[in-house]
Amino acid sequence: MIHEDFHVEMASWERDGAQLRALREQVFVLEQGVAAADELDALDAQSVHVAARGADGSVIGTARLTPARSIGRMAVLREWRGRGVGEAMLRTLVEYARARGWPELDLHAQSHAIGFYERAGFVAEGPEFLECDIPHRLMRLPLQPLAAPPAAAPTQHPPAQVLQSRSFGEARDAMLVLLADARAEVALFSRDLEPALLDNATLVEAVKRIALTGRHARVRLLVQEPRRAIRDGHGLLRLAQQLSSAIELRVPVEDRDLAEPSAFLVNDRGGYLLRPLGSRPEGEGHTCNPGRHAQLLATFNEIWERSQPSADLRVLGI
Fold first, then answer.
1. 3-state class of 193 per DSSP?
2. Is there a domain that residue 241 lies in?
3. Domain with 14 in it
4. Distance separating alpha carbons of residues 142 and 106, to the nearest angstrom
5. 273, containing H or E segment
6. Does residue 248 form part of some domain?
7. Does the residue 155 lie in any domain?
8. Per-residue pLDDT at 5
9. Which of 49, 237, 26, 28 is nearest to 131 (CA)?
10. Are residues 10 and 52 in the same domain?
11. Do the beta carbons of residue 287 and residue 265 sit within 8 Å?
12. Average pLDDT by stretches of 10, the chain with 318 residues
């Protein structure tokens, strides 16, 4: 998850456990009085963990997702609270679960934090109960299931296929499939136009083809942090300068959008590639999955309406 002051990344309990334990001890044991024996359990070694790190690399927040599909151990250092760290970690874990087709998540929310989770869509159920002598409520979040691809695609459309990436090379190949399949529109949400992935002559040429398809062509780029791309003369920015009538570029300005963890590409044929962590190449997608495509396009459009060109981009004439 990307922010001007921090980012969120997937963590390894084996590699990062000491740092995560130290932060949780600070928050739960020292601040909230939870017994140290209750704070650690066997689920840590089995769970998916995220770590929020400050600009200096230090861990400022953590949370986990257990095999029982329950979010827990959400902890943020006191000086970082109220700055979007918790929201960013929560969105990362929710997107992780959604990308895997999980139907639901739950969590035990400390009662004072119910509003925080409600803003993310969780709904409280049942009576209040004590956990480690702290009042809690059970909360659940239904996750919209991924729509099944159509049984048979139109003859003019290639057979639908699952897209996966475990490296930037695989991610680029998947994007090229989506770009080649696009009619006249694509939308890209990116951290910083990741040069290892997007500053590539073949990919830029594929975007150019779409931008030149005619008066209905529309390429939209949402970039959380464009400064490095501007400094380095990124190929997509050069193309946007040349084809400014067809290629639009905006920069998010609200904290919730700057803290959005994912990066994704959607085309106008129901295809998408989603990388839950924009700084990482790992991702999943499909060439024709209308349900998931609609979710991602709706997210993109919402952020697009809240975003605006930056001063740096206006200087470039974009």
1. coil
2. yes
3. 6-142
4. 9
5. strand 272-275
6. yes
7. no
8. 73
9. 28
10. yes
11. no
12. 65 91 96 91 91 90 93 95 89 82 92 92 94 93 61 52 92 96 95 93 96 90 92 93 91 89 92 91 90 83 88 62
